[in-house]
Amino acid sequence: MRIDKFLKVSRLIKRRTVAKDVSDQGRVWINGRDAKASTHVKVGDELSIQFGQKKVTIRVELLTESTRKEDAAQMYTLLKEEAFQSE
Question: For the whole model, what pTM was predicted?
Answer without folding.
Answer: 0.86
